Write the structure tokens for this entry.
Amino acid sequence: MDAGVITFILYMILILGMGVYFTRRVQSYNDFIIGGRRFGPWVSSFSLISSYMSGYTYTAAPGMGYTQGFSSLWWASGDAPGNALSFGLLGRRLRKYSQMLDAITIPEFYEKRFKSPLIRLIASLIVLVFVGTHLVGQWQASGILLQVTFGTEYFTGLLIGGVVVLLYTLLGGYIAVMYTDALQGIVMFVGSQILFWLGLFYIGGFGSFTDNLAALNTELVTPWGPGGQYFGIWAVVYPIALILMGSLGYPHITVRHLSLRQPSTARKAMLITCILVVLFSFAYYLTGGLALTILGEGLEDVEQAAVRLWFYLLPPVLAGILSSAAIASIMSTADSFLILLTTTVAHDLLYRFVSPEAMEEQRTKWARILAAILGVVTFIIAINPPALVFEIVIFAMGGMGLAFGIPNIFSVYWKKTSAFGVLLSMILTMLIYVGGTVAGISPLGMHPFVAALIVGILAIVLGSLYTMPPEAEEFDEAANYLDLPDDVVREASPQTQFQAESGLALLAGTRSRHDAQQKRSDDEAIEPHAGPAWVPGDD
Amino acid sequence: MSGLELFWSSGTWWFFVGQLAIVVLVVYLYISQGREEEKAKEAAESRDEK
């Protein structure tokens, strides 16, 4: 048997073994859905990167580098700020607020933040449509990659990727997803760096790379690309804004904020993610350019550029490792989508709207059954894929970036954001983006995504100003706890602990302000404090 | 004109400078958020001591 195939099989066994191992760690419904909010900065960073990068990394991105040269870096420019700020600006607050509101999914967070079940329902339906679409793209990429790397039939490739992901996701739930994703993130990162630096070394360095590229077409070395396709402000704004908003809106990315060990974990994760993504994203786009200069023009399927390059440059064992890295990129995204779809249907739709009295054990069982059904349904659609991987991924990314990116930012930074504003923004952005993309309309020369983004921001601001904001005082109170790490609260005096807890309870609506004050009086009677009451965040 | 000269003259190098600027911004945020956490921690500790 080929050494590359053996390497790949061993890698699959390792991933499945991890799924089986983490089955023991799933002791509750909360563990299956959110992993019990236990993950540190390294696991969170690598798992976010691997889930974010997806099958796009080894297929579509090098394909763009192959056809567009350096100008494809417009698409890479939003990756690092998007992912890093997603942790640093959004994750920190989202983690704290979601804990305060006892929310374990983004639609649940919206419902509790804005006191609107309708927002939860609409957000859940949007997740189903776009995440389902994106999952089809991942299965498809798995079929293509295995077809190219090991010469399997497209369907066999689909089957291998699908069965492995389904098994470990069903067994280990979110915990297995996080740890396998972290491992796959490391494999992907190392793989991308090996391929890029080896390719650069092979061609004779950066100067030789640019010379070879310019010899084929001088526009490949310019920022505006072949045919001047990135000329003009809107042509440049679109890729950067789409990637940026996608990073801030992708529910399978933002759910990683909810599962951070504590809010301050986001700060470390931000730095790690930023450095890794800068190295990662430029490497995989430019690998396409390297494939063009090394392999030459005329590649039948440009999305195979990276795969062709590593089989050209590397011995079978290393090519097998890189193939595993490529499949890892797909599996790590597919499992995150699968667990997200499952959570949405089980927790946000069935448990919330159909059977709220269901016991925890019953809900975990539902979640596992639904994961199997959703996996199989999307798998069947992928047998006859509706479009290219690139088209599917970009369409789904845009939809989720608009539907969730705008409400995510406003919900944690602007206390006047109201349910009406969020609903108006979600509905208008979906109408403009989906309608404009399907009909091929570009309002005022803008891509429908950019037009929808502008309208969405205006809608959430004007809609919120027009209506009453939800309990702004509690929002302020909650915000004061953001800078205090959980371990400090745990080790603090009973008074500080109580004040932090009462703030959480007030925002969650589980205890009235009167009750909270009453309890504080009782506690002070037991353990009096000489100084004035501590005001959270008072520094 | 060589590829490298074209790289510099056409402004393609700005892609790389942009990424460097992002790293600097993130390091700044990392330090400033660390200071905020430290202040909140000190405030909590000083209240507890009283």
Observations:
- Chain A touches chain B through 49 residues (CB under 8 Å).
- Chain A has two domains: 3-15+32-385, 472-526.
